[in-house]
Amino acid sequence: MLDELRARALIEQSRSEGSPALLNEAYQIVKDLSTPSALKNPKFSLEVVSPELHVIIAETSLDLSSPSRTEDQLVSNRIQLQELAYNCLQSFLSSKPSSDQFLARAYLAYATLACRWADGRKGDGLVDAVLKALDFVMRALNLALESLPRYQFLVYNASVVYWRCSRPLQRKGYFHHILNSMPQVCDALMKLDGDDVEWKAKYIIALARAYEFSDRSDDAGKYLQNAVGMMSSLSEETQVEIVRVLVHVDRTRGGGAGDKVATTPKLGLYARLQKVKSGVISDEKIPDELEDLIKSSSEAGELKVLAEAGRLCLLKGQPTCAQNAIEAIGGGNDAGMAVAVLTECTKAQLSVMSLGEEAEMYTRKMVDTRLDALSRLEKALPSAVRSKDADVIHEICSLAWSLCLPILQPNLRKQAKRVLQACCKALEDIDSPLNELRAQLHLEVARCDVADDLYAAAAVQVQKGLALDYVVPEDSIIEYKRPFDKHLNLMKKKLSMKMSLYSAPDRPEDKAMLLVEQARESKEAALRASLLDRAVGILSAVDEATDVAASACPVPELNEPQDPIYSARGIQKERTMLWGDIALIAWQSHLIKQTLEAAEFACEYEGDVVKDKDLIIQQAQVQFARAEALFMQLRSEGCEPGKPLPQEEANQKNVSAKVAWVEGLRERIVQGFLKGMRLGLKVKEDWIVFNAAVYLWNYHLPLFSSAKLESIYEALEEVVGTLHVAGCKDSQLLCSVSYGLAVALEAREAKV
Questions:
Q1: Contacts of 735 (CB under 8 A, 6+ apart)
Q2: Alpha carbon of residue 145 to chain centroid
Q3: Whose CA is closest to 354, among 370, 377, 331, 340?
Q4: CA distance 476 to 52
Q5: Which contacts (CB < 8 Å, 24+ apart) does range 466-469 have?
Q6: 289 and 321 in contact (C-beta within 8 Å)?
Q7: What is the rounded CA–CA span in Å between residue 62 and residue 54?
Q8: Which conformational region is residue 242 in: left (phi greater than 0), alpha (psi within -120 to 50 degrees), or beta?
Q9: Whether the Cβ atoms of residue 470 and residue 168 lie closer than 8 Å to each other
């Protein structure tokens, strides 16, 4: 008995002091008491120790190993503490315990442990692991329901654990997995006599959303009626949420279910706002409805409604209404953080929209305007976090990402790094379900870190991105269920090789990749050339690509295919892209010979338009680089386009050969730009098409200046036609090339 009391005291002390060592000491005492040695103490028996001590130790272990505990000694012992919890639960459950509160608590502890083990899993593997955890919660809940009201506290605890465990499935694409169990938890909560109506309402709203995403709006509406009955006892924020969800699930019938419970002017305004958002209001009536909503909200002094209406105006393409909402809000200091943040979002977006067509064109004004807007959002983001409003945080982070997209270029990306980092942290802190957005943010921050030579920081971002699971439409799935895993896995491999000081890669492709990355980062042209030569030597000596043996491939997630990188086709694509990298890096240093040699290999593989879009984009860039390298070859001979052909010399045969050589290279230059343009059109990347037109203009500028364009008439004809097909909005480029085509046509007709 004294030993058991000492174990209990150690458990309590370890909990208060956060000491894994004390908890281990308590476990050792309980273990010795549970498995006595006759030689050590023959008086011990298996009944000496209370069996619930195993459950208490397991609960304490899970508390100390919680991800929210950041003390150094707890973080370093997190895995050991979880193993301790598992051993204790196994010991307890194998002892055939009574059906009492401790068995229920053991089930809940097991559910918590299983949920933590599910962290980082994806797809069906994640679903399978979470459903196993929820199965233990339901066992505990059923046991507690058998002894109400005695075990009322266990029902509440089970609802808390269920909520935490089911969070990975409470998002688009996964809601249907919890519809077999969540209604039971919700029904059990409704039987409790407690006053925690907010928690009950939170469950009802979550369940309604799960039904709605699973196309069961009628079931959602029925459960929401339980929340309607508690409206008078709920906070104003929860009342607003109930009204909005009711309007949305009843949108096919006009959203009248929300109107019925909107008993205050504020709730009525939110019901009207949600009707516009949910598509209840027809498109032609939206402008008038938004104007009237802004006027009514302003008269009622409902600034939050005004702020949300401003965001909705931009979503519906009504910038004038959005500006009216901003003016109605004014600059009051009592508006609240959420209102201030949403207003800043609207102002930032309006500033970019004011650019018109120039908003998507790469001009200095466009870049400066977007960077100013991002700076505005960066300053507003801390206020969004302090508001503790998940919807506001989602709004500002989504907008920041949208405004960032056109400037995520190698020479501009770093200027957006701080706001991207802030968005990553804000979404991570609230465990946001917007996992696809988070994966993209982590990928871009990792790229910024790599550019700053912060490899360890980049590796952390990559790992966080790979741990996120998300669902994309079936028609968007090409080779990877999560498209950004393709880029994250490649970056993970590169970072791993860069940070491995004492081990060299085994595969020739990996060796070449490491050399290429070193060449990319080298500041010295001579060293870069040497590294690229070594990479060329390795790739030139490889055997024919074959499938990697299954035993040598990593085990994929449940019901997911093997990574295509391990197939013969994937390996060939990898080699081709390495050749492309060599060509592009060589051209950066104007290494003409290496550029031309590598370009031949990079362009000989014909990729699939759907599966190999990234490869085709690279091949288009390689075509441009090869054409530029050929131009430099001609310039070194003084024979670039616009210059006269070689003149007659004593040896007419040599002159004729040189003229043929010059004319051949000039034709290859033109064809290089055209091939790159065709590839861009093939994969529907308009920027490649536009770049091809710019390249053709720049490298034949003397011909345009002298109006001697008949030699490139066919090329100009194709470029002008392709620019129209691609929807070119750069009027200056389109007019310049079209003028060149007209001049060439006139010259051609004059000769007829």
A1: none
A2: 41
A3: 370
A4: 51
A5: 466/492, 467/119, 467/120, 468/435, 468/436, 468/438, 468/439, 468/442, 469/121, 469/122, 469/123, 469/126, 469/168, 469/435
A6: no
A7: 12
A8: alpha
A9: no
In this structure, what token pair is assigned to residue 397? 């982070």
Residue 173 token pair: 């694409």
Look at residue 37 and give its three-state secondary structure. coil
Looking at residue 738, the DSSP 8-state letter turns out to be H
Nearest to 439 by CA among 419, 415, 417, 423: 423
Alpha carbons 622 and 599: distance in angstroms, whole number: 6
Other Cβ atoms less than 10 A from the Cβ of 458: the count is 25
What single-letter DSSP state applies at residue 595? H
Preceding amide of 42 cis, omega within 30: no
Where do we find the tokens 């409902």?
302
User: Quick one: CA torsion of 447, 452, 453, 457, rounded to 10 degrees?
Assistant: -60
Alpha-carbon torsion 314, 316, 318, 323, what sign?
Answer: negative
Q: Closest by alpha carbon to 640, among 702, 696, 592, 589?
A: 702
User: Which residue type does 96 have?
Assistant: K
Nearest Cα neighbor of 514 from 578, 589, 446 is: 578
Structure tokens at 485: 């895993």
Q: What is the spatial distance between Cα 281 and Cα 266, in angstroms, rounded to a whole number?
A: 19
Cite the DSSP H helix spans in 45-194.
52-64, 72-76, 78-93, 101-117, 123-145, 152-166, 182-190
Q: Is the pTM of this model over 0.90?
A: no
Closest by CA position to 560, among listed 115, 126, 131: 126
Given a contact cutoff of 8 angstroms between Cβ atoms, the answer to whether 744 and 713 are in contact is yes
Task: Please identify which residue in the block is written with the tokens 């010295």.
Answer: 524
Q: Which residues contact 395 (CB under 8 A, 6 or more apart)?
A: 311, 341, 342, 345
CA distance 124 to 93: 28
545-602 pLDDT tens trace? 888 888 788 888 777 778 888 899 999 999 999 999 999 999 999 999 999 999 999 9
Helix, strand, coil share (%) of the chain residues, nearest 5? 75, 0, 25
Other CB atoms closer than 10 Å to residue 552's CB: what's the count? Answer: 7
Separation CA 373–CA 24 (nearest Å): 54
For 410, 444, 446, 452, the CA distances from 413, given in Å and listed in that order, are: 6, 8, 11, 11
Calpha distance 368→357 (Å, rounded): 15
Structure tokens at 691: 């770049």
Beta strands in 97-222 (DSSP E): none
Q: Average pLDDT for residues 138-159, to the nearest whole number?
A: 93
Placement of tokens 């990729």 in the chain:
607
- What is the 3-state secondary structure of 349-362? HHHHHCCHHHHHCC
550 burial (CB, 10 Å; 0-12 / 13-18 / 19+) is exposed
Tell whether the torsion through CA atoms of 203, 206, 209 and 211 is positive or negative. negative
Q: Which helix (H) or strand (E) holds 605?
A: none
Assess contact for 609 and 682: CB atoms under 8 A. Answer: yes
Distance in Å from the first CA to the final CA of the chain: 114
Residue 565 CA to residue 562 CA, distance in Å, equals: 8
- Ramachandran sector of residue 317 (left: φ over 0; alpha: ψ -120 to 50; beta: rest): left
Q: State how far the Cα of 34 lies from the Cα of 48, in Å rounded to an integer.
A: 8
Rounded to the nearest 10 degrees, what angle do helices 337-353 and 319-329 cross at? 140
Helix 417-429 to helix 455-466 angle (10° resolution) is: 40
Question: How far apart, in whole angstroms, are the C-alpha atoms of residue 418 and residue 52?
Answer: 50
Convert the pLDDT of each residue in 13-59 to its tens digit.
999 999 999 999 999 988 888 775 533 555 544 445 788 899 999 99
Predicted confidence band of residue 642 (pLDDT cuts 50, 70, 90): confident
Sign of the CA dihedral running 562, 567, 573, 578: positive
Angle of helix 182-190 relative to helix 152-166, nearest 10 degrees? 150
User: According to the model, what pLDDT value does residue 653 have?
Assistant: 61
Encoded tokens for 332:
């009051």
Assigned token pair, 551: 């035993």
